[in-house]
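Quarterly update from the structural biology core.
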Amino acid sequence: MNKKDWWKEAVVYQIYPKSFQDSNGDGIGDLRGIIQRLDYLKNLGINVIWLCPVYQSPMDDGGYDISDYYHVHSMFGTDEDMDELIRKADELGIKILMDLVVNHTSDEHKWFQEALKNPDSKYADYYIFRETEDGNPPNNWRSYFGGPAWTKVEGTNRFYLHEFSEKQPDLNWENRELREEIYQMVNYWLDKGLGGFRIDAICNIKKRLEFGTFQPDGEDGLRYIGDWVLNQPGIEVFLKELNERTFRLHNSMTVAEANVPEELLNQFIGEEGFFSMVFDFSYADIDVPDTGEWFRPRQFTISELRKNIFDSQKMVQEKGWGAVYLENHDQNRSVNKYLPEKEINYYSKTMLASLFLFLRGTPFIYQGQEIGMENIRMDTIEDYDDIATHGQYHRALKAGLSEKEAFDIVAKRSRDNSRTPMQWNLSKNAGFSNAEATWMKVNPNFTKINVTCQQKTDSVLRFYKKLIGLRQESKYSSVMVNGAFLPYEAEDEDASVIAYQRILEKERLLVIHNFQNCESMIKIPEGYKEKAIGNYDREYLGETCYCLKPYECMALYKSQ
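Predicted structure, tokenized:
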């Protein structure tokens, strides 16, 4: 993996450490648990692990509120455990990515504590403080998690900015000394042999500070903060410096959580871009309004989903490289998002797997996705751990929804749907932990959906392994990794069919997905005789007019 763009050939597996594997019986996943499962991941075929934060943290936001960047939280193990994970994964040909959270810290970080104690210290300028004469907030911005984006320092008229929780004060990237601290920390981890980072909320580091009262866009009298903190002019100076001082020196794989407009995309992921790739939110957040209000879910069509995927693929292809995904720790389970509840089954789940694993870009598989894990429905709002879920629930109540209406909506979209413990087998707590109680409830459907029961039968897990194998080591690998993306739209094609081609010189793959629970017809161009994979056990005989079964997917190959 020494070549410059080694990450193009990667298949990434994202782990939410708290929920992956508990090794010491305390009901919480840990680093030693991940080490124990490395052989499973190697057998799955992945070669990069993205690890959600394991740094020291009060865990107000699942570890994305970091109080010490240099040390591992004791619930996950020790610093030595982290070193061992990096080393043992590397021995298996697996690189580790950590989360890099540098838009904000925890309010318990020593920098912020010093800033509170002494407003004249250098650390006060590591954050964004403003003092007001009347004791009211500097403006009426709404944080991403709901509520005001400014919190008053007790006993003063001094406020600090936080785009997320009030326990996550924003860092002031205008301060050069702060930036130097960040670069030193990033290089500390890369020098340990880390493969790179997934970079959290990085498009928020440049702020356009304006004060006063803005026209509210919600019942709470507040205004969405994004217009002042996302992709602001001048951010490119910070990102270029970050890349040159850290990532580029180590040939790192970097994937940015960055909703980048097309006109800026080349700067982010072009030949000399700031990052290896960025995530695209257009299809993963297709059910969320632009204001980010989960409690006002928007309906979408398969045609709209197809357009968003195709537009993303074409745009990124012109500029550089992308990261493709359907799930992560900030999403609900993809099968519950994209499929009607009564139509979630082996065929629809494997169809979704094919839909994204054949796209151009580095695929990211989220833990449990490979066995088709599903949403959980908790009993009460108190059962949910996610701070954003509680924020959306209370905003829904303020907007006039009943408690049942609010609960039904956030239960479907809650980030905790993807954070339930991994379902390994039929034993206690699905094999995740032998504790009496786990940190979050295990989904009761683990008796039907688990790794062990899917090992020996035609299953979602075995289909994922086949798809990964095709991409990693088969006659189709080159076209799957390096082939151009080209939409395929046959005449009179059913609106619920999503089909596209991958093209590399004389090689072509035609990948077809029937996104509905009834048969569909599709016209197939001449020359496609070979079936690379499909989720129905039936032969393809070279038909030019093919009848797709419900939720059928297949990839056809030809070489001119």
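The radius of gyration is 24 Å.
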